[in-house]
């Protein structure tokens, strides 16, 4: 299932409905109104994929949400703080689950590990309640 979005003039997308991404027994729920730029790819590397490519979209949406909250998220209704390394690993794992080729996953993962520190540490923080929650079925 694809998210229902509106494309903004900025080129970003806005969720028009809550959107859930499931990965095995883990469910990531994004809240309606969340805005994402998809997989942030510098133009010089655009040949590696589109910002809203089908194989990377779910991972990019979840990754953007986790970065927007600086890793702060409720997991099974318990407030948690995920380190940036873990949010980047989640991005990789969701892309793998969604069938993104290994070479593309590796490039995107290396990209977020190299360039993600700035937005994660210095970007504007959003309230996790407005963005994302995670449920793990045990």
Which class of secondary structure composition applies to the elements?
alpha+beta
Low-confidence stretches: none
Number of helices: 4
Q: Strand sequence of the main sheet, in spatial order?
A: 3-4-8-6-7
Mean pLDDT: 87
**How many domains make up the coordinates?**
1
Distance between the termini: 24 Å
Radius of gyration: 14 Å
Q: Biggest sheet, in brief?
A: 5 strands, mixed
Beta content comes to: 15-25%
What's the count of strands?
8
Q: In one word, what is the shape? A: globular
Helix and strand element order: EEEEEHEEHHHE
Helicity level: 25-40%
Record the SSE blueprint:
Elements (H helix, E strand, L loop, with lengths): L4 E3 L5 E3 L3 E5 L2 E5 L4 E2 L20 H12 L3 E4 L2 E4 L2 H14 L4 H14 L1 H6 L9 E5 L2
Parallel strand pairs: 6-8
Antiparallel strand pairs: 1-2, 2-5, 3-4, 4-8, 6-7
Helix pairs in contact: 1-2, 2-3
Describe the protein in words.
The chain is an alpha+beta fold and 138 residues long. It has one domain (5-136). Helix content is 33%, strand content 22%. It has helices spanning 57-68, 84-97, 102-115, 117-122; strands at residues 5-7, 13-15, 19-23, 26-30, 35-36, 72-75, 78-81, 132-136. The strands form 2 sheets. A 5-stranded mixed β-sheet has the order 3-4-8-6-7, with helices on one face. Strands 1-2-5 form a 3-stranded antiparallel β-sheet, covered by helices on one side. The model has no long low-confidence stretch (mean pLDDT 87).
């Amino acid at each position: 299932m694809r998210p229902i979005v509106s494309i903004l003039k900025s080129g970003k997308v806005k969720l028009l409905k809550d959107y859930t991404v499931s990965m095995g027994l883990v469910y990531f729920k994004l809240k309606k109104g969340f805005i994402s730029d998809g997989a942030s790819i510098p133009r010089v590397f655009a040949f590696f994929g589109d910002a809203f490519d089908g194989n990377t979209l779910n991972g990019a949406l979840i990754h953007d949400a986790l970065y927007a909250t600086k890793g702060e998220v409720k997991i099974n209704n318990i407030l948690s703080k995920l380190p940036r390394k873990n949010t980047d690993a989640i991005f990789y794992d969701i892309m793998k689950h969604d069938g993104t080729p290994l070479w593309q996953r590796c490039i995107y993962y290396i990209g977020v590990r190299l360039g993600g520190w700035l937005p994660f540490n210095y970007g504007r923080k959003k309230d996790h309640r407005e963005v994302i929650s995670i449920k793990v079925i045990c």
